[in-house]
Amino acid sequence: MPVKVVIKRKFKNPDIPKISQMLVQARTNAMHEQGYISSETLRGCENPNEIVVLSMWEEKKDWDNFKDCSTRRELEAVFAEMLEAPAEAVVYRMGMGAP
């Protein structure tokens, strides 16, 4: 069953060109992974330092595999240095079917 992953990051002093480049790299990495479907990036209207990435995966296990891969962990470590607080990632199932 497809899942959507919501990753919320709140940046200290956002270097938007650098963040944009990193997000493109993260998306490129994800595109090569089993089960990746799509993603989109949102920037807060009320708080432009807040950036949310929504990604869709065929199954939760596909996201879990990508979440734990070394290329993602390395990029997340760079993001972490730029954040006010740790990134929040939440996984949601599509629809109201059984878990």
Describe the structure in brief.
With 99 residues, the protein is an alpha+beta fold. Helix content is 37%, strand content 30%.
General description of the model:
The chain has 99 residues and is α+β, with helices and mostly antiparallel strands. It has one domain: Alpha-Beta Plaits (2-Layer Sandwich). 37% of the residues lie in helices and 30% in strands. It contains 3 helices and 4 strands; from the N terminus they run E-H-E-E-H-H-E. Strands 2-3-1-4 form a 4-stranded antiparallel beta sheet. Strand 2 (36-43) and strand 3 form a beta hairpin. The longest helix has 16 residues, at 16-31.
Largest sheet composition: 4 strands, antiparallel
Level-2 CATH architecture: 2-Layer Sandwich
Mean pLDDT: 94
Helix content: 25-40%
The chain-level structural class is: alpha+beta
Q: Which CATH class applies here?
A: Alpha Beta
The helix/strand series, from N terminus to C terminus, equals: EHEEHHE
**Uncertain spans:** none
The beta-strand count equals 4
| Structural shape | globular
Rg, Å, rounded: 14 Å
Distance separating the two termini: 9 Å
| Domain module tally | 1
Strand content: 25-35%
